[in-house]
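Schema walk-through. Below, the input block comes first and the output block second. Nothing else is stored per chain. Lengths vary across the set, and this one has 311 residues.
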Amino acid sequence: MKPVLSALALVVLFASCQKDLSSKQDAAAASTVSSDVLLPLPFHSVSFTTDYPANSAQLFTFTKTLYPDTRVSRLIMTSRRNINSPYFEPQGAFNYDYQFVYSTNKATITRRYKTSDEPDFSQPYSQPFKYECILNNDGYCTEIRRIGTPASDYPVRIGLTYSGKRLTQIWVPFVDDQDEYTTSMGHWDVAYDANGNVTAITPQGDVYPQSSVYYTYNLNKKGNYCYMPTQYLFSQWFSLLEVMQWIPMEVNERKSVSLKVNFVDWSAGTDHAVNRTILQGQSYYNHKYDANGNLISYTYGDNVAQKITWK
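--- output ---
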């Protein structure tokens, strides 16, 4: 059996001082953007498209439908489900339909999904599943858990720990059977540079596969950033948090990302197991910004343009 790429996740204590996240569908909300720290800033990404050919093995896209007060009501997201390596299962892609309802320090998520090895996703969505995302007083997610799952059945899907406004640890206590290709359990530590950019996310202890990701930055450039999420390493839940900007974002312009995966290859049988390492990396360049400093496009590694729309 070929190995399957890892998921990440974690749990955290959230602030006792809670803020109301409930949706305000009135005329005032429709004309103003709330200053509440737990609501999106006036400028946040609402869509992401790519010039990749229509091939589900390469696609990453998302579009957001907003409530009048600019919080996200619905998210349609497509992302490939595995890294590009002959040692892992075929690429293919996930298509997710997320819908959000807000309350105090919480977003209730209804999620449907489907998979495909083709770009048209012609099959129907799965039945809906409900989850809750707990948000701390800075608006960052501390855990996502399956609603209706008893504690004895490990409802938490991903957990995150913070020090101030920095993400310090990610852990996955249980593999979600509705989130294929995310079979690692354990925790990963997050390292930063002096400017507040994540430089490394590395596994700690008994994690399999041993998957690490590393970033470099152009420290001379600052802006509002939205990059194609690192869904080839983390669980699809972590990709959701990146897209929703429910985790701290980088401060400086990203230059490169690289991935290292150590695993045991059992494809030749249990008597012929081989330790293998996969190294992959891509560079980011040709960054373009609007007048507000929002990144609106960049080129990813193999000369394919990525485009971001902001609200």
